[in-house]
Amino acid sequence: MKKTFLKNIGIKKLEQITTLMGLIGHLATYIQVFKIFYLRSSYAVSFIAALISFTSMVFWLLYGREKRIIPLVICNIFGLIGVSLIILGIIVYGDNFY
Predict the structure, then answer these.
(1) Could you tell me the pTM of the whole model?
(2) Which CATH architecture has domain 5-93?
């Protein structure tokens, strides 16, 4: 019988890898936050896109919490903090909300 990828690496290892990859993926929000606050400008940063991202992460966080999927919970908390800072930067340094 063939071993599957999951059986080869194990579920615990897969959880560690997915948590790491989720955190790395959400680093993009922190790069944007740095740029907004360093330049004191949110020019060309979409408020609507940030709200969509925020809403999506809230639902993924709730789903992960309900299903007890730790990587989803950890990564989406990390992402929500980042996108909240983007929204704050848009409010503080933006001249429009569209």
Answers:
(1) 0.85
(2) Up-down Bundle (1.20)
